[in-house]
Automatic annotation (TrEMBL), chain A:
It is an enzyme of class 7 (translocase). The chain crosses the membrane at residues 61-80, 92-112, 118-135, 147-170, 190-216, 228-253, 259-281, 288-309, 315-336, 357-380, 392-412, 433-454. The lineage of its organism: Bacteria, Pseudomonadati, Bacteroidota, Sphingobacteriia, Sphingobacteriales. It comes from Daejeonella lutea. This is NADH-quinone oxidoreductase subunit N. It is a multi-pass membrane protein.
Automatic annotation (TrEMBL), chain B:
GO terms for biological process: ATP synthesis coupled electron transport; electron transport coupled proton transport. It holds the Pfam family Proton_antipo_M. This is NADH-quinone oxidoreductase subunit L. GO terms for molecular function: NADH dehydrogenase (ubiquinone) activity; NADH dehydrogenase activity. PANTHER family: NADH-UBIQUINONE OXIDOREDUCTASE CHAIN 5. It is found in: Endomembrane system; Membrane.
Amino acid sequence: MSSLITLSILAILVLYLGLYKAKNALLPATLLGLAGALVLAVLEWNGGAQPIYSGMMLFDNFAIAFTTICIFSTMLILLISKDYFESISEHVAEYYTLILFSLAGILVMVSYHNLTMLFIGVEIMSVSLYILAGIRKDDFKSNEAALKYFLMGAFSTGFLLFGITLLYGATGTFDLTQIRDYVIANPTGISPLFYTGITLLIIGLCFKVGAAPFHFWTPDVYEGSPTLITAFMSTVVKTAGFAAFLRLFLMCFAPLHDFWMPALLVISLLTLFVGNVTALYQHSFKRMLAFSSISHVGYMLFAIVALGVNSSNSVFIYATAYSIASIVAFAVLILVKRQTGADNFDSFNGLAKKNPFIAFTLTVAMLSLAGIPLTAGFIGKFMMFSTALAEYHIWLVILAVLNAVIGIFYYLRVIVAMYFKGAERNEIQSSSYFNFVLGFSALITVVIGVYPGFISSLF
Amino acid sequence: MINLVWLVPLFPLIGFLINGLGRNTLSKSVIGLTGCLAVLASFIVSLGIFIELNASNTKSFIVPLFDWISAGTVKIPFSFMVDPLSALMLLIVTGIGFLIHLYSTGYMSHDAGFGKFFSYLNLFIFFMLLLVLGSNYVIMFIGWEGVGLCSYLLIGFWYTNSSYASAAKKAFIMNRIGDLGFLIAVFLIFTTFNSVEFAVIFPQAASMLAGDRALIIITSLLFVGAIGKSAQLPLFTWLPDAMAGPTPVSALIHAATMVTAGIYMIARSNILFTLAPQTLHVIAIVGLATLLLAATIAVTQNDIKKVLAYSTVSQLGYMFLGLGVGAYTGAFFHVITHAFFKALLFLGAGSVIHAMSNEQDMRNMGGLKKKLPVTFLTMMIGTIAIAGLPPFSGFFSKDEILAHVYEHNQLFWVLGVIGAVFTSFYMFRMMFLTFNGSFRGTTAQEHHLHESPSSMTIPLIVLAVLSVIGGFIGIPEIFGGGHWLQNFLSPVFAVSAGKMPHLTLDHSTEFILMAVSVAGALGAMLFAYQKYVKKGEVPAEDRIERGTLARLSYNKYYIDEIYASLITRPLDSLSGFFHKVVDKKGIDGLVNGFGKGAIEASKSFRLLQSGMVGFYIFMMVFGIVALLVYSMYKI
């Protein structure tokens, strides 16, 4: 809880730092504040959490774990943002502030215990993101991204809100515990309002995480937004969306599994195929990453389809592996784009000769995204598939494995470009911040891949 | 000393490592010394073990080294078993192994791969010792596979010659067929007895009924393994080809030690086989058929090593015949004596080949008696021993087997004696062609003729002495002997002996049997003498037309050709079919088609992402409607 308060105060503080032109203090102050929030969150681990603020929030281990990974990923992203923000805009402080506000919304999303808090969290996060997507005011694509995101986001928020309303209509409460009690107490006589509410919530949440057929905003927004914001959206925001999704279903709707499971199963498969198959034919690395993020949503939905005791753990590991690898991918993309001005696969040609370290870390990240053993991505996929198999979704897993095979093609494409294609290019100069983030992320990816025990038994 | 048994395989392993790593840097003398000393050290330890075991009252020791596989209920320790059977095998392997290492320092002295050769040879000894010492089937299997590997490496030692390389492959593949049988047998043993330890299995098995189905299947599969390793019908064709390796290898691996592994394994598992009389019957028939087939092939071969190779196959057939009639001691007795005289004969042949500048065709030899006196004398002793003439070693072991066979089945005995007659004939034929008459090679060869160096003749002399006196360890009681070997081995075969009828031949019958086989061998010898010394016949050139029987024998009954057309060629065309149709068109087509399909799908999926928000919202609404319809239906 204290980390949420820290974050909110930090955001305001950073805004004032910008006002007084203390540009150089922005990044250190933000990182320091985030580190403080991280420590405060971790300190509450196993604290026997009870709902607080009249049952609005519950800072349990689930919330702490996802808070930790979200803050941690944000720190990694901010570490590579030093020159980036300054190079694309004058309003640097607003960047930090907006990201921090968005993060505050995310913290609410992972720790809500009341549906109104879910809605508020989603909105705090989303509104900040609408602005961030369009923060390059002079850039047409950035504006387009912001507008599309806002339009469709507003559209989907309506469903989320309507769903919450229907649940309230059926149960007379927003409180998660009471809703669960309602479900348990009425095994047969559950109101149709309640069912429809669940369906509408699925629609709203699927939009937020970008599951097909509610994914259409993702590629366009990801492509148009500044790359770092894309990185933030596709890692931290996605993780938070899943945490919120999972929290709701785990706490309230588990007994109604038979009702919503088939729908989510179809959505999950559709997402996998749309994401993977479309990613195949992309020429832009950034757009490929956008579609690949859609396909990863498909894998993560497994945890909800096969809801059980292992679900939180699977999503946590998967999201961690995916976030870290994606951050590396986006970081290298920023470097390459800065040098060549393009973000297609060809601009990676010959990178391994000039920048072996960068190429190596990107290789590790790609292998992790593809789910090759000895990387964190493999452990994530393994957990997901075994969760699904535990519920006897054999066909789901077979189709998912097929998709994983398709995925290998486009992930390896960039490795092939880096190692096997020659091109005239100069060495990329990367700052030590970059090198740290790249090396550290690659290291974590391999460590989790080799020794998953220390993270897989958290819950 | 018995507790130090782990030293026995350790020395050759160290020798292998030193010679293997230093094969290009160490000098030949260092390599030779390391290789020989490693095996000599093993021999000395083995000797100590043997003496201690002989004096001890307990006849079976298990020496655990470490827990090797421990998974759930499966526990396989890495431990060694010392009992009379393994102690004797240790002496044979390290003793003859040492002599052959010594011989190799002379024989291989001009070879560029000297270091490699000695490292392989040491590795072979290491694996052979594992095979012999293992206290369970799994360790035995490690050794079993390991010696197969070394055999492959050494047959193909001169791998630049493509026919040698294919001989190596042939040996390996034929052995693999047998190994599969062995492996499945080990699995079945585990499922049946829940253990692979000899000490656990055999007492359990002893309480089973004779003819138990599980036992019959297990023993049949074990026998398949033995067929591969010990070159019996139908998997024997690799052994004659294995003569492509250097001659010391033929002596060590393909005559004295490795090929007897199958007999060792059956003797080790004797109780299983005793309780599976049907399998024993099959073993006897296979052994008999192999010994006759190989003996009749050997009479027309002209390559000195090929004659010995077929003779080895034939003698192995005798051992299996012995096993098949339950004469475990007799069969193992023959293993020992055969190791002496066959190693001697091969090394002698090597000495001849060495002197003849790598000539192996006996038609180009002749009259070598004077030039190679030591080789001639020692080889003659070996020949007399293998022909079964008293009192040399082969007489005792072969007649022990034949006596058991007579009691078991008199027809088998007749055929066995015919085999013995053939043996005597082809061996003396080989001797006369090589050493008598006049020299038939080129003048350059004649000029180069010389007796081998002492590093080669000393092993010959030692082995010759052993071939003469080796039989005295098993003098049967009709000659007033106590049959020391039988007493020594009795703990190993005690349970089996209790379940089998005892030998009840009276002395006069036994004498007659011996007299018949000795007379037959002598007659064959005289016939050979008449034919090749008196008349001075030389086998015909390859292109000369032969009579039907001679042609069959000369061409090895066309067995290789039959295998080629029955098995190799159909397999090749099946493989071609799988390669061209199933793999290229079917599987590759499926995979590539899948890939192409995915790319095509990608092209059209991509168009969905049109950039038009209106279209996006339309698609979303489509999804929303579908979901709502679904929930209406579901509620």
